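Troubleshooting: if your tokenizer reports a length mismatch, compare your output against this known-good record of 672 residues.
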Amino acid sequence: MNRYFKKSLTPVNKSNTENLDYSMIKMPQISFGYMHKSVQQLKKELFEKLEYQRALKRLDISPNPTKYRNPFRSTPEPLFKNIIKRNKFIQDNGLDEFIDAMFFNINNSYRLLNKDLVAPIDYFTAEIQVRNLKRLKPLVKVIEAEDVDKPPLEDFWFRNISKNYTARWDTFEEAICRHFILNINTSIGTIRKLNWESLLKKLLRKISSKSNDIELWPGHPGLASIPYKGPVVTLSNFQNCVTSGKFKSLAAKSLGSETFYIGERYKKNVYTFACGAEYKGEWKSYMRDGLAKMTYNEDFVYDGYLFKGRRHGYGSCTALGGYYKGYWEEDLIDGPGEIAYSDGSGISGVWKKNQVVSGRLKWSGGEYTGYLSPLYFEGSGVFINKQGDIKKGIWVKGKLNGDGEITMKNGNFYKGSFVDDHLEGQGFIDTTIFTYNGEVKQSLPEGFGKIVYKNISSDYEGYFSAGTINGKGIYKIDSHMLKGEFILGKLSGKGEKTIGSISKYVGDFSDSLMHGKGILRISSENCKSIYNGEFKVNKFHGNGKLRIGDCEYKGSLAHGELHGNGEILLDKVKYKGTFFKNEANGRGSVHFIDGSYYDGEFSYSRPFGSGEALDANGYWLAANFLEGKPVIRHRLRNDFFTNLQEFKEKLMSFCALIEWINENICSTDFNI
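Known-good structure output:
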């Protein structure tokens, strides 16, 4: 034994330990900002206090010793052990340094132990929020391994040693004892040198001396789920808890043995925790290591491999009506694995540090297979919602972005480039009504494209806006065609209308109807004609020139009929005057090929009223006419009246062709 230890660190036996007086220990308000000092700050304090620098120099110890380690990792011995073993000036102040280091380290030991007991609750709490997913919220609550110089999400001292919180004594003493088992056992001689009375007093003093200068973190919600009826650690009974029970027994029994005392709860390869949890399996260096089974209670069971007390390798964990089967690394789900729940929901795939990165996710909202991030579908994958719709492609933050396709249960199909679940750019749309191939925006045709309708043999190729035909384009139905500028699906402005090989109109349109000036050409067995003039709502209306076969009309029309002033040539019979609904009506004159004529008033294309007539023999007559004949005696030749009758018949034939054009050409409507 080093002689410098003898003066201040007197070994005590079991009886001495039992007679220790702790009545003088006081418990002021507690706070714990000290533990969140960085590792570098701790090192600096350890070497600056008193005369450590000179001692280290004399002992040739490097001023930058090996880094402080987490007690659960395979790194060199912790710094405080080196100080205790090598510093010849460790008296009371040396004990302070030992407690400083232990104080810093014991927090991590407890936290890891506590996490060991409640981890299954973490993994399955709220059923991993699977049932509340909105485009995939976090799949698994992340339990990250924090650096020792960062404040943990749950700090043992914050949670348990304050006015507002209590600690279960079983987990508290397990934490302290675990710290000694993990960090002091390799130097049993050091334990014998410790003055346990002084150590406990200084430990309490260290905890009590810090002011509340940092924010308290919330406690662990899962701890309350494990049944416990034992004592608790509070501010008032902290002294009694520390100086009694297993911790006191541990200290006393360890002094008389070369192996560290584990406890009476370890029997027949089964270690029973005070909370009722049981461990059955292999041990290595006083740590749970190897194939084992950890039963927290009937609802929480881990069965698999451990490494240095942590789940590592293949294992299964059941909790809250669900289970996980797969691989672990450093107490985190890592590798192939599967989580399943009693309602049929679950996750199976490949995990990385508690996050599923690829696999199959199934819940009440649907099913997803592919790559994931902690919060969203991320990467290549397929999603099937509860309605039966299928989304397949590249996902970014839970939405299709990039090449993909959507198949709806109603039969609609979308394929192309997606941005936030909507087709953008080039795309293909297939519905029960039509197919579309072209430019899209927000999953609607936008820009140039082609749409083919299924219920009728028709298609449109041209420009779209917000899913509506808008801009230049060509619409075809059977052998008919509309071509020009479309506004909201209607041909407006300049355009063309073709009805098979029969007719073609070039001119003005309004709502896909001939309206304004234009030229209509008709070529059929029934009629060969051309009209150049004004239209109104698909009818001849206004001034125009109409030629049908060898007949030609020039003048005014209304609603597809000869109406108003005009002149017509019917096989060398010429009429000039007024018309009313395709009849010569009013003042007018008709001239025949033999030189005869009539000039006067007409009614229904016959002389009616006052007028004058001249026959082929040169006989002239001025008289009143009734139903095409003079009301007085006359000598007009019979062929004069024959010419009048032929004029009426030819005019009727001409107007009959106009009606055919109205019904078969002008009235043909094939709007989109």
